[in-house]
Amino acid sequence: MKSYIFLVLVAFLVNADLYMHAPPGNNNRNRERKNNRNNANRLFDSQNNGQGGYPYRGDPSLVGEADPVVYYHGSYLNIEWTNQHACGPNPDVHCELVIQFAIDAGDNNQYTSMPGLRDGYPTGHCTDTRGSANDNDAASCEGTTCDATCNATQAGHWVARQFQSVNQNNKQRAGTNTIPDPTQQGSTNLAGKTAAERNAFYRAASSTARVERNTGTFDYGVEFGMHEDNKWYERCAHSERNKGLFTIDQKLNRNDARATRQNPNGNRRGLECPEEAHYYPYWTPSPWYDIAVLVSNTSYCSYFQENSQNVVAYGQCLCPFLDADDIQSARNTAGHLCPIDKTKCEQYGYTWQEVAAKTNVAPDCRYHSFGRDNHLGNTLEVDENGVPITPKNGEEPKTAKYQWKVPDWIPNDSKLVIRLRYNMSTNDYPSHQFAEASGTLGVGVDANTNCPWYSGSTACSDGNPDCATGTGDNNAFSCGTALTANAIPLYNRPYVNLFDEPATRSFALSLAINTHQTGRTFQDRSYVFKVQNKPASVPAGATITNLGVRGRRGNIVQSYPAVEYDFTPTISKCSPGDYLHIQLHGSDFNAQRNANNGEGWEYSDRHNLVQMSERGMNYPMHHSQFDMFSTLEEQQKWAWVGQKPALCDTSIQDDNNGNQNKYQNCGKLNMAPNRFPLNPEEGLYRCHSKSTFNYASTRNNNFSNRSHKAALVGSNKDDDDEEDNTDAAVVGSMAAVLGVSLIGLGAAVYMKSKGIACFAAGASAGGGGGGGVVTAI
């Protein structure tokens, strides 16, 4: 470990929201059908507006498990976000955006960093979910009588599981209460539990893992969302905080790692450790793997890359009391918190453990795209020198994004979550000097420049360096109360006099500088998804691009600061021999929106894919003109998204008489599954020609209200990475990975677009090895 007292990146931040759009960020939501989230403290400290975030997506009838999308090893995933107060080479700000992920590959897997990772899933009875916004009214399918057939198709209406924990929104579908605090071992539900019993509840290896709250009533572990686990939070709560950090005039009211300048009282959000969440790179082993650091100044890249836990071993003290059944009592007996430096650890007679570098691959570091202030919208891409790239004629503006290649070393069928943190620094303090000199740490602003009313003297009986030394109201201090040519005041919301004039001829101006907020970290996190081995039929060296959907139900004002529906990426590129992996994921837990503000069932979003002759059109092509898919079967597969005509009410031909909210209205995709296709391999297609085709979702493409269109652009592998928005003469031909087509190998497909033929003859999905028959898209 380098040093435990050193200044880190996020010491100086200003108020700026951050929202992840792809994969959808939860912003601490789960299954509430509301504009605003229920609980800002459910999983992590986002500091974002309560209206942000996306509801849980997936099959709501499953018991104690997720219904996640799957990304294959080596595939490319667009991570997209908006941040409110600019980033990149904008001279108004100094910023960094840190992208990370965590893994649950099972308790005994060396790569597992977050055992028990989950969003929070119900385990109770099946219920009719058509009712009011956020409760389960008694209806035709509630209780044990219908549990065996908790299936919307069989029930003839939408269904969902109940949360049954006493402490988890009983009789509601939301599942938004914070997981119980493992450090409060005297509380009703954890009283008298051993460490092993606590671990079983938090790991929730089965849906029946529970603790009794009152006689005959229980809390079920799997029903509570959990990213960081109980062992991580217990270490945080019983370890020393870093007392070398710059806190200006904020008084930190705890000695442990739960207290930071942003969180001086050590308040709890999920089981995250506030100190780790608010500083990067962190000085003790963290559960997060680094993907990338996007910056406004690339001169700092070497520092971030050289100090990433991906490539550097960091140490921690193995304090025996952290493994006790009653940690607080054992710590009280020891008489101290767990130290965070090696010397002190060994003085206590404890073992110092060096934790190896995670991957030996440094995170990517590059400029963040150029964004403007006070704006949640698109950004300008920049070149390697930070110069904004002028968009080509007809080129679309772009959401801030990072294209992540899913690492091959992640264990098959692992559960993952992505974290974004948005860091903005003011240049009023030398906050980044620590990164400006190679091999040095702690050379920027640190604890030595904190307000002098805080003292580490022996007068502080508990060793807290933030005890007041003033008299009277115990808040006397001297923090540079005047603005001078050589100094600035270091206290909250100061009034400053710019002119050296007597008080009779001048007055002080108020500065909206909040020392609590200038130390804020904003973050968002994805829902849980899975990573799996790519199918054996995909040849080595082939590129897989993930195509999904983003957006939330509602018009542009109602969905804000989330976004309306779109495909992601909007413009996909696919070279011959490469693959496109299509997965559509929908929710039943949107805020109630009726026609024009959201089509189909009032709480849902669903998506399909039909071909358009050009993106300026809004009527889809007739199937006889389809060039995207070579067979009627494949055309219907993506147009109908799993709905069976025999089960649909085909008499519905308009939106009158409540038809939008009728379950059997297949025209609105109301009977479509939440995740399509159910077998992820059925969404994997191989590209065969340099070509372009356009497509849309019929449900969400509501002209003059919202657009839900996209295009696939064929390209050569040596083409540059610029997106093309033109309509090509030849429309795309791709082959399905699975053998779902009735066409045999060697079949020729005549491309009807503008009379030009394109053939996909003799090309199987596996390149001749394993399996699929040829279809064209």
Helix content: under 10%
* Main β-sheet description: 8 strands, mixed
Based on secondary structure, the structural category is mainly beta
Low-confidence stretches: 1-15, 133-139, 439-443, 453-459, 468-477, 721-777
Shape: globular
Ends apart, CA distance between termini: 54 Å
Percent of residues in beta strands? 15-25%
| Tally of DSSP β-strands | 31
Cα-based radius of gyration, to the nearest Å:
28 Å
In DSSP terms (H or I, runs of 4 or more residues), the helix count works out at 9
Average pLDDT confidence is: 82
Explain what this protein looks like in three dimensions.
It is a single chain. The protein is built from nine helices and 31 strands. It has 777 residues and is mainly beta. The N terminus and C terminus are likely disordered.
Please supply descriptive tags for the structure shown above.
mainly beta; globular; 777 residues; eight-stranded mixed β-sheet; 18% strand
Topology of helices and strands:
Blueprint: E1 18-22, E2 70-72, E3 75-83, E4 94-104, E5 126-128, H1 152-155, E6 159-161, H2 195-203, E7 210-214, E8 217-220, H3 230-237, H4 274-278, E9 289-295, H5 301-307, E10 314-318, H6 327-334, H7 342-347, E11 351-355, E12 364-367, E13 400-405, E14 414-425, E15 454-455, E16 467-468, E17 495-496, E18 509-510, E19 522-525, E20 529-532, E21 544-550, H8 556-559, E22 566-568, E23 571-574, E24 579-582, E25 584-585, E26 610-612, H9 632-640, E27 675-676, E28 684-687, E29 692-696, E30 709-714, E31 734-736
Parallel strand pairs: 2-20, 3-21, 9-12, 21-24, 23-30
Antiparallel strand pairs: 1-3, 3-13, 4-9, 4-14, 5-6, 7-8, 10-11, 14-19, 14-20, 15-16, 17-18, 21-22, 24-28, 25-27, 26-29, 28-31, 29-30
